[in-house]
Amino acid sequence: MRRTLTLALLALTFNFPGLSRAKAPDSFELNSVSALEIQDSGEKKAEQVRPSAPAPAAVKEWTVMVFMNAKNNLSESMLYGLSGKWAQKDLEEMKKIGTTDKVNVVVEYGFSGQGAKRLLVGKDSETVISHDPAADMGDYKRVIEFGKWAKTNYPAKHYMFVLWNHGLGWIDPKHTTSAGIAGKGILFDDETKNYVRTRQLGDILRQTGYMDVFVMNACLMQMAEVGYEVKDNTGLIVASEETMLAYGFDYKKLLAYINANTGATNEQLSDFFINWEKEFFATGATLIGPIHIPLSSIGGALSTVRPAALNDLPAYLNVFAEAAMRNNETEAVKYAIETAVRFSSLDPKNDKQKLIAPYVDLYDFASEVSKVSGYETQMAAEKLMKFIKSKLVMRSVGLNKDAVNGYDYTKVGGIAITMTMKAKILPPGLGAIYETKYSDLSLSKASLWDEFVEWSDAAWRK
């Protein structure tokens, strides 16, 4: 969710002259009951009853935990002129299956004006475990507390952790307006004006512990920069390089699949997500009753990434970047800046040409460079492309085309990265919106990619 921008689901804007303006724990635990001490003084006393200790929770096959932050327009927003209660829709889908003897389903549900409820989702039911009317759903510490609570109270052999909200890739813009917040990294709370920063995603997984599957049901989050922050504490990353529709995943199908395939491998889970994306775009979205919306004119992407392989990504990036800079491949890089598939603009409403769209598909960018570069750079690009296809990205699908720019999403390789924007002159004040510096990200520290982007910026605007 995630999902922003396209189809007037959101108006993401920033505080730039000439550009549209974008709209972008308290921790709590169940009280435990202590057993009474039985006193024995040698005298016969009235018997004291020791409360029964809670029975150890059964270890199930899976626990699916969803941190669902709808304290923003995802509680209710428009799609094709129709109002949608997107969080409620997904919760109702979960209830079609609910918790079973094999799978636990727990949700932290933040809703506009109501704080947050912690839920155990059953079939056609929900049990409210706790309610915090002042919940800050943008506080990464709350996400951590939820994850720890879920693992403690609903233990399982495998864990799937879903972050459900809007997303804007790695960019963590500053809050610059009192009317609302700009689109934040992920999990932004319109009421508290807080959000989870990119590097805090790594803190979340470090402190909650290993998650077999980490799903970001949010826009633009399948990025090298994001994945590199969480790579050490999950076995599979599921996310999109592009915007995701407010419609979201089909949670009934997801839970039905997990219940029927509790021993599914990462490859099989990847196949489920990718096949679902293909089917969703092929059949379109059903909204209310007979209303059916075709999706053939909308670009979409979904992929699964092997986190462990991200450890090797800096070496491939370095060889490619060093070859391009050493051989002064300015024309090849300029060609790729112009032609490589780009994802949503920072100002999607007004910037249809994606002049200020900072994210490119890494595979396609390397491919475009290789077409017009010298031999050394071409070889480095091809090695990077092979690594992405054979080692880094497990499954990927790109769908449809960007009619305005001619981008063919079927060419995407499954992982995005930051690259020089196409605008020759950037909007005034653009640099001032960044709360997190690109050079401070873990991937920037581990590789030369940030230096390469600076070199590319200079070559492009020379």
Walk me through what this model shows.
- This protein has 462 residues and is α+β, with helices and mostly antiparallel strands.
- It has two domains: 6-27 and 55-307, Rossmann fold, CATH 3.40.50.11970; 310-393 and 400-460, no CATH class.
- The chain has twelve helices and 19 strands.
- The chain has helices spanning 86-95, 140-153, 198-208, 224-230, 251-260, 266-283, 313-326, 330-339, 362-372, 375-392, 442-446, 449-460; strands at residues 60-70, 77-79, 82-84, 103-111, 115-122, 125-132, 156-164, 186-189, 194-196, 213-217, 237-239, 285-286, 292-293, 300-305, 359-361, 393-399, 401-402, 407-408, 416-418.
- The chain has a nine-stranded mixed sheet, with helices on both faces. The chain has a two-stranded antiparallel ribbon with strand order 2-3.
- β2 and β3 (82-84) form a beta hairpin.
- α3 runs parallel beside α4 and α8 crosses α9.
- The two termini are 39 Å apart.
